[in-house]
Amino acid sequence: MDESLPKSPEPARPAARKPRGRPGLTERDRDLALQAARTLLAAEGLEGLQARAVAREAGLSVGSIYKLFGDIESLVRTLNLETHREFAAHHRAALEAMTDEGSDAEARLMALARAYLEFVLENGRRWDAVLRTSRRVEAGRPAEYFQSEEALFAIVESVIGELPGFADPVRRARAARALWASVHGIISVTLANSRASDPAADALAQVDLILGAVTRDASQAQ
C-alpha cells in the first residue's frame, strides 16, 4: 500500500444531543414555593393560596408547583402541619416560661389558654386554614398531622394530671378535650362577636370562669 496517498478523512461523529426541557426541580425550588405559600396564606388566607399566585411569588411556573406538591390540597396539608407544630411549640414554651415552681395547675392551664389566644391573634389566617380544612374528611392527611394533634392534647393532659381526681387516664383525656373545646369555642366566638372594648381580655375572663369551675370540682373530689 502506498503510504504517500492521502488518507480518507474519518467520518464526523454526530453531535451530542442536548437534553430537552428545563432542568429538574430542586429542593431549593420547593423551599421557594413553600415560603411563597406561607407568605400568601398569612396575608390572604386560603382564598389567596392559588397555584398561579404561589408560582408568581416563588418565581416558578404553575406546572412546577403541581410537580412539587401534586395539588393545592397537598400544599395546604404541608402548611397546616407546620402550623400545628409551631402551635404546640408555642404552648410548650408558655409552660416553660412559668419559672415559679409554686404555680398551681389552674395558673398553668390559664397560661395555655393565653398561649392559644396569642397564637390566634398573631397567626389568625394560618390557624383558620387548619380549622377549615380539618372539618373536611381527608383520607390523604399524613399521619404526622394526627400525631401533632395528639401532642397538643398531651400538653393539656399533663397539666390536668396535676389536679386531684384525674388519675384515671380516660377521665383525664376526656377533660383535656373538653377544656380544649371550651377554650377554642370561647376564643373563636368572643373575638368575632364580643361587645367589650377589649375582646381578648373578655375571652380570657370567660376562660377563667371555666377553669375555675374545673379546678373547684377537682378539689371537691379529694
Radius of gyration, in Å, reads: 28 Å
Number of domains: 2
β-strand number? 0
CATH topology of the largest domain: Tetracycline Repressor, domain 2
The amount of beta strand, in percent, is: under 5%
Element-level helix/strand string:
HHHHHHHHH
Structural class: mainly alpha
User: How much helicity do the residues have?
Assistant: 55-70%
Separation, N- and C-terminal Cα atoms: 115 Å
The CATH superfamily of the largest domain turns out to be Tetracycline Repressor, domain 2
> Can you identify the CATH class of the largest domain?
Mainly Alpha
Biggest sheet descriptor: none
Q: What is the average of the pLDDT values?
A: 85
Unreliable runs: none
Q: Examine the secondary-structure arrangement and name the CATH architecture of the largest domain.
A: Orthogonal Bundle
Describe it.
The chain folds into 2 domains: 24-70, Homeodomain-like (Arc Repressor Mutant, subunit A), CATH 1.10.10.60; 72-220, Tetracycline Repressor, domain 2, CATH 1.10.357.10. Helix content is 69%, strand content 0%. The protein is built from 9 helices and no strands. It is elongated and about 70 Å long. The model has no long low-confidence stretch (mean pLDDT 85).
